[in-house]
Amino acid sequence: MIKCLRAWFKSKDNTPEPKRFSDHEINPGLYSKNAVKVIKDLSSAGFKAYLVGGAVRDALVGISPKDFDVATDAHPEQVKKIFRNSILIGRRFKLVHVRFGREIIEVATFRSGDQGSCFGKEKRLFGKKGLLLRDNIYGAIDDDVWRRDFTINSLYYDAINNQVLDYTGGMDDLKAKRVKVIGDPVARYKEDPVRMIRAIRYAAKLDFKIEKKTDSAIRAHKDLFENVSPDRVFVEIIKTFYGGFALKAFDKLAEYDFINLLFPKVYKIMTGKLKGYNYTDMLISRALYNTDIRYKSKKPLSTAFIFVVFLWPVLQHNLYKLSKADGAFINKVKQAIKETLKNHDGPISIPKGIAETCEHVWLLQFKLMYREDGKIQDVLDNPKFRMAYDFLVLRAQAGEEVYNLASWWNDFIAADDEKKSNMILSYTERAKSMRAKHDKPRNGHRRGKQKNRPEAAKN
Ligand code: ATP
Ligand code: MG
Questions:
Q1: Where do the domains of the chain lie, and which CATH numbers do they carry?
Q2: How confident is the model at residue 227 (pLDDT cuts 50, 70, 90)?
Q3: Closest Cα to residue 81, out of 96, 92, 102?
Q4: Residue 43 CB contacts under 8 Å (≥ 6 apart), including other chains
Q5: Contact at 8 Å (CB) between 308 and 431?
Q6: Which of 418, 393, 405, 305 is nearest to 357 (CA)?
Q7: Which of 95, 213, 241, 275 has CA atoms 20 to 30 A from the CA of 459?
């Protein structure tokens, strides 16, 4: 107990008062009314509550925040009691989600940075090599601030007094356009290696530089990534590629040699170490460019698409490996798809639903090519048809020889019923005559039934 009290006094002595900024340029209109309501309700119930993290950082640089995190001294169970429209979530970090229709305000209790709790049952749990596995020791705002990742993410906005509280120099770093880890970068990356991709993500998103030590620790300690949680990497990847700065983020990740780390097989194909596909660079850049455009024009984005794209070169490589094997082509495609989703080698866990979408869209690429008699309408009615068609167009843009095929489908989609029937008829005729040519007897012998499917008619 004495040890705990000493630690408590020590941490209080060491924590300076925050700088308070009232002359910030936050436009309160950028904030969700629901987030402000959560803060006011917590405050009326006698608790402290602030907006924190991305919402404050983004509003300070004039970007409209997309989600809102609230930090409070109320414990999760207390928050839950105040908001009937809320649920408790999380294990590593217990949180409350307060739901207003489709909007969710995430409410987290201030955490303490101490290594053991003096008050309560919960402990900080560290795993192999310093990895932080559980962090449910509650504290005050001046504890909470030090366990945040970057100074620019540690600003608290007091919506009631319209003030920004800055303990770590985040305001200066925002002005200097700098991403800087709070504390010792190596120790902070050891606790959570995902922070390395987060630093790169913020640099790309905000067009900031990564501060020198924050930067050199990323470059020197990539091996920490071996301990990373694949589910959390998946979440970061989605945030990285679906925020309107995907192309910039990809280039930044490449600059830090993280493409190799995140998508090792794709990287090997891109650099010619694995064979089977020559358009990887173009395919990925076009996809990310299109994703950024769609994000900016507020068009819907499918989280699966990135994986459809990134893993297509791996699928082509797997198919290439099977090219000399016996068996029907479509079975090889299915085998290659399975292998691609099972062994993509990266530290990212791909959720089942996304893997299923990849499988459908990839299989449809072959169906779009073969346009089988009587099955064209089925292809058109397939719920993944639109994504598959967009992907086909992307492949054409990347330089694959599918330009004529994509343009056939483009015409087909736009055609009326009569033109559709004519297009199917003329394609089927052409495919038949191609097949007949292919099956013609040579040297007086009729060729046996082909094991491998003949190539589709040239489009
Ligand atoms: P975005 O705009 O992409 O949501 P964000 O900064 O809000 O960015 P979140 O992942 O939503 O990012 O996290 C909210 C806040 O929680 C962060 O700003 C940061 O203060 C803190 N945080 C999140 N992840 C970590 C982490 N791995 N280590 C320390 N603090 C973190
Ligand atoms: Mg956020």
A1: 2-176 (3.30.460.10), 266-439 (1.10.3090.10)
A2: confident
A3: 96
A4: 49, 160
A5: no
A6: 305
A7: 275
User: What is the average pLDDT value for the chain, to the nearest integer?
Assistant: 87
Per the structure block, which two tokens stand in for 452?
A: 């491998």
Cα dist. 219→186, 193, 196, 256 in Å?
A: 11, 12, 9, 7
Pocket test for ligand 1, best of 153, 165, 194, 205 (most atoms within 8 A of CB): 153
What are 401-439's pLDDT values in tens digits?
999 999 999 999 999 989 988 998 888 888 878 777 766
Which pLDDT belongs to residue 125? 61
pLDDT at 443 over 80: no
Q: Which run of H or of E encompasses 357? A: helix 352-370
Distance CA 420, CA 417 (A): 5
Look at the block and give the residue holding tokens 């033109």: 419
Question: Cα dihedral angle (389, 391, 393, 398), rounded to 10 degrees?
Answer: -170
Q: Are the beta carbons of 345 and 265 closer than 8 angstroms? A: yes
Q: Which ligand is nearest to the CA of 239?
A: 1
Decide if 358 contacts 311 (C-beta within 8 A).
Answer: yes
Query: Strand (E) positions, 149-276?
Result: 155-158, 163-166, 178-179, 209-210
- Give, as residue ranges, everything with CB less than 5 Å from ion ligand 2: 54, 67
SS3 442: strand
More confident residue, 227 or 82: 82
Q: Alpha carbon of 358 to those of 20, 246, 443: distances in Å?
A: 49, 20, 44
Nearest to 168 by CA among 66, 64, 259, 53: 53
Cβ pair 279, 402 in contact under 8 A = no
Residue 299 burial class via C-beta count within 10 angstroms: exposed 0-12, middle 13-18, buried 19 and up:
exposed
Question: In Å, what is the CA distance from 224 to each residue of 150, 190, 201?
Answer: 18, 6, 18
* Atom of ligand 1 at shortest range from CA of 232: 27
Query: What is the mean predicted confidence (pLDDT) over 375-382?
Result: 88
Closest C-alpha residue for ligand 1 atom 28:
149
Residue 169 backbone phi and psi in degrees, to 5: 90, 20
Predicted TM-score of the model (pTM): 0.86
Least confident of 122-136, 170-184, 301-315, 403-417: 122-136
User: How far apart are the two ends of the chain, measured CA to CA in Å?
Assistant: 79
User: Is the CB–ligand 1 distance for residue 170 below 6 Å?
Assistant: no
Residue 53 pairs in a beta bridge with none
